[in-house]
Each structure stands twice: as structure tokens, then as C-alpha cells.
Structure to design on (329 residues):
């Protein structure tokens, strides 16, 4: 029996351009859409947007979007999503007193790419991470749950906004629900606990497929390389840790992603775990740098990573498992 195949995509704001390039390469090499190649697609934040966009059905039942079209999402919509007027900068005290960005740009992009599609309509199972701030618990959007219970079926544009509502960047998502106990959920970016959702996806798969071998393909959004020097940190207080580029958030997300990578290396059967991650040597690590120069560097980083000998060998092994010559192997 073929392994249960998981695709997991990290959070990371505009750096989601990197896994979008990797997904395009997978689709290009297999001549198949992501939704057909994987049994479960998991995502957090920008990875969650990619997950629901790649599994959104079109009018013919095939995916509405190819991965290469979602590269264009970052290139054309990124500058609009991460754009602040002078008034917004002053109103938010440059991000200290209010969210850095209005939600309009993000919502407009999600409306265009996701439209009226519902979670239950996803072409394969999805697992999208968010966090509920009023009841204080990790909140997972699941196609499987939406199919079982209409009360858990939501427009995917709202799912995408909730998972991407990063603290200090965007206002939380308010998701109206038909529930006797609560009338709405207050949701923020799942990156506060699952910047790399691959372990969450693995646990979900293991619960539902206890006897089946599991394959995990995990896509990163770039590993941080900028040094935080001891002599600088020892003098930092709350202001420096949260402004201007929220270094505490980037440290937490980077550390969580690497931890999940270590855990899955120990847990997944040999040869069935693949982590594609690149060091941000030339591209900037800010989640909101959507400048033309940085978008170009992010694409180049992804392309260079895929051309490295070790990555290329791993990529070929992954493709052999995704599209085996003997489908019963």
C-alpha cells in the first residue's frame, strides 16, 4: 500500500513565495496538481493560504489554481497586502499602538483567489492552524470535520484570513459560528504555536491511519541567519523585542520550525520524511518585506536551493514516492 502522503507548509508572511516555488517545481515534474499528489495538505499563516488555494476546486472539479499562479499572488498582491499609508503609520505609531497593516489588502487578495469556496469543498484533506484568543486554545480548520458537521464548514477566505492574522501585523479574524455555546471565534495566526505544522499533520494522520506508513514533505519559508548578538540583547526590553521587526516573533517561529524538523526526523520511517528549507543568505527575513528586490531574491533563494546536489537528490527520492512506477509499491 502506498504511504499516506502529507504536504506541510510553514508560516512566514511574504516568504511563502519560497514554498510556492517548490510546489510549482513538484507540479511541473509530476504533471499533476498538489491536491492530487497528497492526502493531507497542512499550513500555517502564509502556508495556510497556499494550502487552501492549492486545494480550491475550479468549475471543472480540478484545482482552480496551479502553484505557478500562486507565485504571482505573492508578486502582485504582496506589495498591496504589506502597504501602509502615512496616516496608518501615524495612527499605529509605526506599529506600536495598533496593527501595522490594514486588513483590506489581505482580504481583497483572499477574496480574489478563494472567492466563495467552502472548506468542505477542498479537493483533499486540509489542516489549517489558528489560535482562539478568547477561549485560549489551538484551533484547527479541517476539511474532514467540515464534511462531518456543517457547523464546522467555513468560507476558505475566512479560514485563510484567520491563519494569517499575525499579531502586530493584522487585526484578529472574527469568525461567526452557529453554536449554542458561542457566537463567534476570535482567531489569530497559528504561527504562535505551530509555525511549522508538520507535527500537527503527522499526529492527525497517525490518529486516522494508525497502521499505514506516513510520508511527510515539509516546506520551509527560509531559515533565519541574522545574528542577534549577546551584547545587544542584554540591553533589550519589551520595546526592542517587539519593534520595529518583532524579533521575538521571528525567534519563536524559527525555533519552533527547527524543533518540529528534529522531532519528525526521529519519528518518520527512514526515507519518508523530506524537509526543504533554505538559509536566507541574500533575501531579507522580515515577513513583510514585499519590495521588488526582496521578492526577486526570495525566488532566487528557492531556485538555488532546488539546484543544490543534496536537495536535488532528496527531491528525486520524494518524486519516486509521490509518483511510483508501480502504484501498488
Amino acid at each position: 500500500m502506498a504511504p499516506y502522503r502529507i504536504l506541510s507548509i510553514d508560516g512566514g508572511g511574504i516568504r511563502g513565495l519560497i514554498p510556492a516555488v517548490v510546489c510549482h517545481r513538484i507540479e511541473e515534474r509530476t504533471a499533476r496538481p498538489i491536491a492530487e499528489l497528497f492526502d493531507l495538505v497542512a499550513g500555517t499563516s502564509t502556508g495556510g493560504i497556499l494550502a487552501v488555494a492549492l486545494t480550491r476546486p475550479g468549475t471543472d472539479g480540478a484545482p482552480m489554481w496551479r502553484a505557478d499562479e500562486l507565485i504571482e499572488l505573492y508578486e502582485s498582491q504582496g506589495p498591496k497586502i504589506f502597504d501602509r499609508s502615512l496616516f496608518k503609520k501615524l495612527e499605529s505609531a509605526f506599529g506600536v499602538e495598533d496593527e501595522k497593516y490594514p486588513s483590506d489588502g489581505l482580504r481583497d487578495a483572499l477574496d480574489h483567489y478563494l472567492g466563495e469556496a467552502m472548506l468542505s469543498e477542498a479537493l483533499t484533506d486540509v489542516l489549517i492552524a489558528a489560535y482562539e484568543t478568547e477561549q485560549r486554545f489551538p484551533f484547527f480548520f479541517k476539511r474532514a470535520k467540515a464534511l462531518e458537521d456543517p457547523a464546522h464548514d467555513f468560507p476558505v477566505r475566512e479560514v485563510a484570513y484567520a491563519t494569517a492574522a499575525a499579531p502586530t501585523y493584522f487585526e484578529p479574524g472574527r469568525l461567526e459560528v452557529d453554536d449554542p455555546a458561542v457566537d463567534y471565534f476570535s482567531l489569530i495566526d497559528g504561527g504562535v504555536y505551530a509555525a511549522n505544522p508538520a507535527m500537527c499533520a503527522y499526529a492527525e494522520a497517525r490518529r486516522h491511519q494508525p497502521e499505514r506508513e506516513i510520508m511527510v514533505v515539509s516546506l520551509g519559508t527560509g531559515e533565519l541567519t541574522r545574528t542577534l548578538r549577546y551584547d545587544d540583547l542584554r540591553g533589550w526590553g519589551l520595546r526592542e523585542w517587539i519593534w520595529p521587526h518583532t524579533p521575538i516573533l521571528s525567534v519563536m517561529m524559527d525555533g519552533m520550525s527547527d524543533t518540529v524538523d528534529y522531532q519528525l526526523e526521529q519519528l518518520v520511517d527512514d526515507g519518508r520524511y523530506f524537509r526543504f528549507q533554505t538559509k536566507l543568505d541574500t533575501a531579507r527575513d522580515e515577513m513583510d518585506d514585499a519590495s521588488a528586490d526582496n521578492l526577486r531574491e526570495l525566488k532566487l533563494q528557492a531556485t538555488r536551493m532546488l539546484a543544490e546536489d543534496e536537495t536535488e537528490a532528496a527531491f528525486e527520492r520524494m518524486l519516486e514516492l509521490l509518483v511510483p512506477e508501480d502504484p501498488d509499491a
